[in-house]
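Put briefly, the fold is written as integer tokens. The lines below illustrate.
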Amino acid sequence: MTERALREIGPDPSLLIVDDDEPFLKRLARAMEKRGFRPETANSVASGKAIATARPPAYAVVDLRLEDGNGLDVVETLRARRPDSRIVVLTGYGAIATAVAAVKIGATDYLAKPADADDVIAALLAPENALPPPPENPMSADRVRWEHIQRVYELCDRNVSETARRLNMHRRTLQRILAKRSPR
């Protein structure tokens, strides 16, 4: 590890990684350790919150969907215990609404899986208010429409009738859209 990279990490290299995908968790922990971090792993919301409470780390990488709940609960616990921590939320179910929710409660960044260790480090060590590079593959118009519908649906507490009213579309049309998988 270069001296410059260690300076970027800072004097406290503690890192919490919370993910229920055991092979990914171990692989990411090894990669982060090789890059100068001191990782501690958890595979559930409960164990992640316990570590965040007992030993709040300077850095965290938290999966959004875990078997026993939502990773945002870990983010909230960590933010309450250590407001200066840098937190990246990872998920295989990327949606704009969840990215907004993650950032609102204190995540530094939000990455869609598959993300490698270099992506995670870039997000963790990015300067404050730095703009990310433009996407290599931007969303299609169909995907942007779907994301907007999902966001309004979440804001309406997953109420189909209210969402349809706000989007000015027929309820059955909205139900068909919601039943389909997200466009690429």
Notes: Strands lie at 14-18, 38-42, 59-63, 65-66, 69-70, 86-91, 109-112. Confidence is low (pLDDT under 50) at residues 1-7. The radius of gyration is 18 Å.
